[in-house]
Amino acid sequence: MSRQDLRIAQLSFWFMHANEICRRAQAAPGVQLAAVWDSDQARGNRKAAQFGVPFEPELATLLDRDDIDAVSMCAEPARHPDLVEAAAAAGKHVLIEKPIAGDVAGARRIVEAARTHGVQIMPAYNLRHHPLAQRVKQLVDDGAVGEVVRVRKLHGHYLEYEAADYRADRITRAWGDPHDERRDSLFFAGTHVSLWFEWMFGMPESALCVRQTVVDGLPVEDNSTVMFRYPRYVGVSELSETLAAQQPVTEIYGTEGTILQLRGNLPSTRVFNPARTPLLIFNRRDDSWWVPDLPPHFLRHEDQYHSAGVFFEALRREEPVPTSPEAGLRSIAMLVAAERAAATGREVRMDEVVTEAEVMAA
């Protein structure tokens, strides 16, 4: 093994995406999965055996190794700030699963760790690297819809109600405290959408939110609707664990046209849709629809376009990672504002949650 390889350690398998990150580390050219750590030693030993690498029970010992360049982190969101601070202080770059923290204070600690120790910290944000999302952003930036007047973004999962993994008692046992660990739809699904809005349009001015639980017995709510107010339009975020075979993913309406995106999240891709394109663009000037040249179907949005590979390649090329911890902070602030709005029944301004400097930070 060449010392030129980028050596990665996996911190925690609490969240399932750790498995895919490890697989990608082992498959990526010039990348080596060197070790794993987990606060749950039984889980850590099991995963170390699965991936054929050593398990290190002591976090400080692993982080003290000078042959590890970066870590991937898939712990409970409430634990991320402590883990990030330790990794950054040891000079390790960090790929951190979303949501990057459970609150704004924790996200601020992560931003400060990156600045203090000069390491790169990248939220694992898959949708940014999906060709559909990238094409939608390009179309909007190029003025394909003119001035935006309304945006609707749907994201979530689909609970197989009869499966043991989604019984209320299993959720409570497997997730510990599902509220503290952000397993409700507003954070669990919502972090994808808040990162998307932040990337596409920047920070909104305020948020309104309604939350509800549809599936009896769940310890957390499974449906949320958030309205993000921008200066000249509203972005609607619909977050759900219950939309079977839901197909629309993104709707952007403007003065000159419309963009409709089909497929790109789990409910929209788990059941094949025979539509010939996942993207439709309407041009108001000639009242016509047109479709870009894109692959007709994606089985899963993570399968081919994964943030881990982007992170590895940026580090190998010594380039900046595309998604900053500041973006992660802003995405958390949007969700916290939505939580406050739901709890109080009022519109919550973003400047109640973050400072102007944090909104404007790169």
TrEMBL record:
One Pfam assignment: GFO_IDH_MocA_C3
MF annotations from Gene Ontology: nucleotide binding
Coiled coil: none
Residue ranges of domain Gfo/Idh/MocA-like oxidoreductase N-terminal in the record: 26-124
UniProt domain GFO/IDH/MocA-like oxidoreductase: residue ranges: 134-259
PANTHER family assigned: CONSERVED EXPRESSED OXIDOREDUCTASE (EUROFUNG) (PTHR43708), OXIDOREDUCTASE (PTHR43708:SF8)
Protein name: Gfo/Idh/MocA family oxidoreductase
